[in-house]
Amino acid sequence: MLDDNPRPQKRVRRESLSLSPPSSSPLTPPPSSPVPSTSTSQSDSPLRPLPHAVLLLSLPSLLVHPPSHRYYIQSLCLSLCSLRKCLSLPALSPEIECRAWTGLAELGMKVISSGFSQSEDHLWARGIEAEAIIAQKHPSLRVFSHHIALLQVQFSHWQHKTKFARTQIRNLIVSFRPTDPPYIVYSAHLAAITLFTTPKPRSTPSTLHTEFKPPLSPAYNQSPQDIHAALSAIQSLESLSRTQGHTRVTLLSHVLRLRVLVAANMWNEVGNAILLAESALGLSYEAITTPKPRMTNAKEKDKTEHPSTETTFISFEDALESAMVVHTLIMTVVYFTHIGSAAEASPRLSHLHALLDSGALDQFAEGIIEISLPDGPPLSIQVTHPRILFLLAFLVSSVAKRDAVGRKPKRKVFASEGLTSWEKEMDFELLLPSWANFGDVEEVEQRLARIKADLLCELAAVSIMRSEFDAAEEHLAALIAHTRTYSIFELFAARITLHNAHLAHALDHGARALECYRIAVRLAGADNFVALSARAGEIILLMGMQAEGLIPNEPPVNKKEVTSVAKACRGMGGTLEAVGHVLDALVSPEILKAKQHLKASLELASRSQDNHLRAVVLALISAHYFHTAGDHALSMLQTCSQLAAGLGAPPTKDAPGILPIVGNARLSLWVGQKFLGE
């Protein structure tokens, strides 16, 4: 009879309890085990203690943290102590000693660039400059000679030894042999380009009061010799990549050339560089024709609102291509906006938005891209941080959309959304690679601060255009507070003064406007965009006030000065070029020449979709046709009246509590007087 509740069977012993050592290896299971047990055998095996030198050398890689981490300073301090202790041990092997000195040099550069060596709060970092120099010159580092040479070049640049650093990098590039790994050769060429496009570090104290502080961002006022040297270095990089058959490095060289040309304001050569970069990326666009044709019936309107085929843009799965195409599109939109071609800028801006919406920036979240090379390790390059690119897209979109007419002008929408996104992005942790330093964090923060200041400038400008003067004053107050908070007021002082001049000019405060215009000219310095804008505004205001007899004490406007300002405006982009034609028309002694200048100005304003300037030019042109072509003059006045009313349209139609639409009141009043024959 079977038992319903049998006793459990005893567990079978599968391991020997013999205390004698096994004859086989400790990792080999005993013969009595039918089934090997990996976990058991590994747990029973004795662990050998690491040599002190190996343990100390490995600690920095285990303690490494990005600069945004709360224990970043502690990790640097412990890593330095570990390497110093390792180098103090006797009888080190050549390999360990070489790696320890290299690590000490790299850590020393991070400490110096972060400013800890010059800070009284970080005594553990004092004297690291001498250690970094000794580490770079130690005889045991011949194996890492190329890598150490690049560190020496960077350190010399931080010490304001610009000529010495450039000589070092030239000697390094010449010393390369065909057997050297490609990644170190390309790194040297990129370092040379950086030296030619980056100015000397600032001598002013930063938040950490460091002397050897790298610049926060590249300055674009380099000498022509440095710019041509940088372009020559880029050409060498491109030739080398073509010889080696590395097409991805060739693509990088195309984007680098475009960046240098845009930064140096060499607009005459930017067009060819754009063609090369877009061709390498496989991009092609068709200019959007504006204005759109008027709908004649409901069927055509329905076809337009519901097209059968939608516009599609090419997408990129590779991180390098995604980064290069985002950089290229941003610079091309800036270029076509500068020359006043809205039809060319619009499709590229749409492609940029499509890429950002598809998550293209997520492919290089830390701003680091690796270019795979067939021989040797990959080439790691640092690109603009994705957070900067994301917010920069809002700024570029706001600048590219020049039209301020309508209920929700895109210029205002993009600027407002950019500020909202800026505040949201500040709540998220900044992703940076583990080898970054505090200088990289400060650079990203400073660039983001400048982007927000630019967005506030755009909001202030569009508010003045739309006669929203209370909003303009609020934006200017926020702009001043923001720039002072981030210590960048000096960079924006001229622009802030120019915006105040435009605001006073629009409010008919002539004396204050003249004073602000003249101060803006002095603050801007040379004949740049801000200085020429201020000089043009001062001249136009003076001519108007003198015509009305409001300033009898002011000397009359010098026609030679007006002509010189107009001539200087012609090479400063579509907007200032149109203003220059207006100045020429105001002082032209012949009506025919004045009409030609105003016609050229109207064409530039229409091509750039700047309806604010277009309304003013239409008003000036109509004055020349009152006695010769009355119907044509009335047609232009009607268009001018519509544009003036649109410069202040409320967000919604028939919104409660909204006063009647006024728009540009002074221009509308002038147009009404002309309609009445006054």
Automatic annotation (TrEMBL):
The keyword Cell division belongs to this UniProt entry's keyword annotation: yes
Residue stretches of biased makeup (Low complexity): 35-46
Region ranges (Disordered): 1-46
Compositional bias of kind Pro residues: 23-34
GO cellular component: nucleus
Biological-process GO terms, alphabetical: cell division; chromosome segregation; mitotic sister chromatid cohesion
Pfam families in the cross-refs: Cohesin_load
Compartments, as annotated in UniProt: Nucleus
Ranges in a coiled coil: none
Annotated keywords: Cell cycle, Cell division, Chromosome partition, Mitosis, Nucleus
InterPro entries linked: MAU2
Family statement drawn from the similarity comment of this UniProt entry: Belongs to the SCC4/mau-2 family.
Protein name as annotated: Uncharacterized protein
Originating organism: Hermanssonia centrifuga
